[in-house]
Structures are given as C-alpha cells and as structure tokens.
Design brief:
Blueprint lengths: L3 E2 L1 E3 L2 E8 L2 E5 L4 E3 L2 E3 L3 E6 L10 H11 L7 H13 L5 H16 L4 H11 L2 H4 L4 H10 L2 E10 H11 L3 E10 L2 E8 L3 H12 L2 E8 L5 H4 L4 E5 L3 H6 L6 E3 L4 H6 L4
Parallel strand pairs: 7-8, 7-11, 8-9, 11-12, 12-13
Antiparallel strand pairs: 1-9, 2-3, 3-4, 5-6, 9-10
C-alpha cells in the first residue's frame, strides 16, 4: 500500500510506503540494509500543509465547496465548524478533534467517486486564493539548495496530489480513504496520527545530513523535534506554550522566507 505520493524530479523519483511495521522509502540515491530502504547523505525539508503552505484546512474548504455544489449532503459544514469551535474553545483535545474529523468525512464522502473529487479539485478549487505568498517560493528555494521536500499532513491524498502539481514539492505522507471500485468508502487506508507522523518522520530524517521543518501546531512537534532547524509558522497559543524551552524559531508570512533562507546549506 502506498502511503505517500511520488513525483519524478529530474531523473529521480521519490516514493514512500509501508511494509508491515516498517516504513519503506524509495529513491534513486538510496541504499538498502536488511530490506529497509532509507535516505542517506541527503538534505530534507519536512513541511506541514494546512496553515503552513495553505491558509486554512484544505480538506474543510473542499468539503464546504462540494456541499455548496450539492456533491455531498448538507450538514457537513455545520458539523465541521462546530467541531473546530469546540477545539478552539478548549472543550476537546487535538486527538479528539482528529478522531471526530475523520468520522465526519467518513459519513459525508462515503460513496463518492474518487475521480469526481479529483476532477472537482482540478476544475473548481481556487488554489491561488489559499496559498500563502511564501508557499511556492519556499518549495522552489529549498529544491534549488538540494533539499528533498516532503509534506507531512493530515490532509487527504487527492488534495495533496493536486497541490503537488501547483507547488512542485517532491513527495508527501498523508491520510487516505480505502476505495472500492473507484469509490471512497467510510474506512481509511491511512490515518496520519501522532504515532504514524513520528514513525515516518523519524525514518526519513534518521540519516539526513541537514534538515529543516516547518509546521504550525503541536501535532507538528513530532517532526519539528527531529530536525536541525525547526520553524513554527504563525502558531496558536497552545503551540507557543508547548514550544517553550525548545529551539523553535517562530516565523510569519512576512519573514518565513528570509529566516528559513538564512539557515539553508
């Protein structure tokens, strides 16, 4: 089963998957030890997507628009907004929000043809409205300096596949629905929770020669704790509080490119 996207980058293709309890990372410049393929002598940038490259939760914005167009049933936006309010007010934890979030999507997206979702994304989603001014330039700059750009996000795979066409990041690790005969089901092939984010990030960063991380939330600490240069983008108050005592550099849309650029090797 493929856990992440893959994209040709010159003559190199990066892909990520999982076999049993081990993450499998494939790249033309890799080597193999005991059937586990790992990145070696490589510079890696691990980036969140929502509220880091995309201003908002991309999966929510997609759902709102699909509801407006009558592709999914009405009620989705009300449930999502109530869930987000409960989280922002401190009534529920991130883990509870994460679980309830997936239950909402399982209910409303079950039975939708994946091809219809991807076509809708391509034809109707206004990406330029949501990408931060720094997003495209950041990916370009990182790649020009030789970094493999990896998105680690709870976003759905079909969203990141389309975003990859816009931003040209190398690969991604994310959540995905199980499918049956081309239809999304109410079960999941991949769920990006704390544990899987920690395991995947640890695997790809284990032998990186230089690493950068960019995220906005406490959930992103799973990879920010592992990189050489961790950056926290316009964080919420809970992330600011939790980051005390850590070597995180707080950035915003006005200075992210400058501060990240200053540590590139």
């Amino acid at each position: 089963m493929i856990y992440a996207g893959w994209r040709a980058y010159g003559a190199v293709t990066a892909a990520c998957g999982r076999q049993g309890d081990a993450f499998i990372i494939e790249r033309a410049t890799c080597s193999m030890d005991n059937n586990l393929i790992t990145f070696r002598t490589m510079k890696i940038a691990v980036l969140d997507f929502d509220y880091t490259l995309f201003e908002g939760y991309a999966r929510y914005e997609l759902g709102y628009l699909m509801e407006e167009e009558g592709i999914i049933n009405h009620g989705f936006s009300d449930e999502v907004k109530a869930l987000q309010t409960a989280y922002e007010d401190g009534q529920i934890t991130y883990n509870q929000k994460f679980a309830d979030d997936k239950a909402i999507f399982a209910n409303y997206f079950n039975g939708i043809r994946r091809a219809d979702v991807t076509k809708f994304l391509h034809d109707h989603f206004d990406w330029d409205k949501y990408f931060y001014p720094h997003s495209s330039k950041l990916i370009t700059t990182l790649k020009e300096h030789g970094y493999l750009t990896v998105i680690v996000s709870g976003c759905w795979d079909f969203i990141l596949e389309e975003a990859q066409e816009m931003l040209d990041f190398d690969t991604f690790f994310c959540s995905a629905f199980k499918e049956k005969e081309g239809m999304l089901t109410n079960e999941f092939a991949t769920i990006l929770d704390y544990q899987s984010k920690r395991e995947f990030s640890g695997q790809i960063l284990a032998e990186a020669t230089h690493s950068i991380g960019l995220g906005d939330s406490v959930a992103d600490f799973e990879f920010l704790n592992l990189v050489n240069h961790p950056f926290l983008f316009e964080p919420r108050s809970d992330a600011i509080e939790a980051s005390k005592g850590k070597n995180y550099i707080v950035v915003n849309r006005g200075d992210a490119l400058e501060k990240i650029g200053a540590v590139l090797q």
